[in-house]
Every structure is written in C-alpha cells, then in structure tokens.
C-alpha cells in the first residue's frame, strides 16, 4: 500500500537538502514533491521503504511530520 509522508521544515534551504538526500538514497524524483513556499516535502512511498524515508526526513529536524 502506498503512503504519503509529509514533513514541514523551517527553511527553503532545508527543503532542498532533504530533497537531495532523498534522491541520493534512491527515492525516485517523481515520488517526491516539494512546496518551497510552505517549506514542505511530500514523499509517496510503499510501506517497505517507509522507515528509511522517515529516517531521512527526521534527520533534518522537521517542525512537523505526518503520514
């Protein structure tokens, strides 16, 4: 089952860093959506890769994270 994980950060720079790290860990670009104005990253992920994605998102100290 596919899940969407959303994380909100304090700055646009952090959003860019999170995006780069997600891509470098092998998450396909088409599965990642960013909203720079809201400082938000959304990742569509199957349950099996959820822990890895969540780890990357938490590493950058989100203000909020939800799925």
Brief overview:
The protein has 67 residues and is α+β, with helices and mostly antiparallel strands. It has helices spanning 12-24, 50-59; strands spanning 2-8, 32-35, 40-46, 64-66.
Care to describe what's here?
The protein contains two helices and four strands. 15% of the residues are buried. It has a four-stranded antiparallel β-sheet, with helices on one face.
Percent strand equals 25-35%
Strand order of the largest sheet: 2-3-1-4
| Succession of helices and strands | EHEEHE
User: Could you say which structural class the secondary elements and strand pairing correspond to?
Assistant: alpha+beta
Number of strands: 4
Q: What does the overall shape look like? A: globular
Q: How far is it from the N-terminal to the C-terminal residue, by CA? A: 13 Å
- The rounded Rg comes to 10 Å
How much is the average pLDDT?
A: 92
Share of helix, binned: 25-40%
- Which ranges are low-confidence, i.e. pLDDT below 50, for 5 or more consecutive residues? none
Number of helices: 2
Mind summarizing the main beta sheet? 4 strands, antiparallel
Topology:
Blueprint: E1 2-8, H1 12-24, E2 32-35, E3 40-46, H2 50-59, E4 64-66
Antiparallel strand pairs: 1-3, 1-4, 2-3
List the main descriptive attributes of the protein structure presented here:
67 residues; alpha+beta
């Amino acid at each position: 089952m596919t899940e969407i994980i959303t994380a909100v950060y304090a700055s646009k720079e952090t959003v860019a860093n999170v995006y780069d790290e997600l891509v470098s860990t092998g998450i396909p670009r088409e599965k990642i959506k960013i909203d720079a104005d809201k400082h938000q990253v959304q990742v569509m992920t199957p349950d099996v890769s959820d822990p890895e994605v969540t780890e990357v998102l938490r590493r950058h100290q989100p203000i909020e994270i939800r799925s």
